[in-house]
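Recall the central idea of this unit: under ordinary conditions, the amino acid sequence of a chain determines the structure it adopts. In this exercise we apply that idea directly, starting from the sequence alone.
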Amino acid sequence: MKKNLLIILLLFSFSVNAQQKLIFNYDQAGNQIIRELCLSGCSSSAKQVKENTEVKEIEALAEEDLLKFSKEDVISYYPNPVKEELYIKWEVKDNDYVSSIQVFSITGQLLKTYPLMARNDSHNIPFQDYSTGVYVVILYCSSGDPKTIKIIKQ
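Accordingly, the structure predicted from this sequence is:
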């Protein structure tokens, strides 16, 4: 009898733990803003994802659509999270331009390097071939100051 009771108790504890999930939500910059424990029968608010947000064509972008590190920064990018292509734009100030761009996986593996010329002020990075996850894009400036962007690929 004790063995049966012990087996039933173990089976019950495994079935209860199997129904728990953690749901994560991220802001535009890829920072985690909500971590929610979902017990069996998750609420619809926990599953909200910005799937219906519209991604604009590059030609239709307005200045307020571009994401920046800070208001006075000269480098901006769109969209994040990205589905197909990341658009990066910068201003050349005091002969300080983006000399190259590198894309890394979250594990640190170099995936692609884009050497640029001084007269460019924007670049598109295709993300179609990359799997869903988090990537790091580093922009190297001619002054030696690198800028790092955390990108989420959906």
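The chain has one helix and ten strands.
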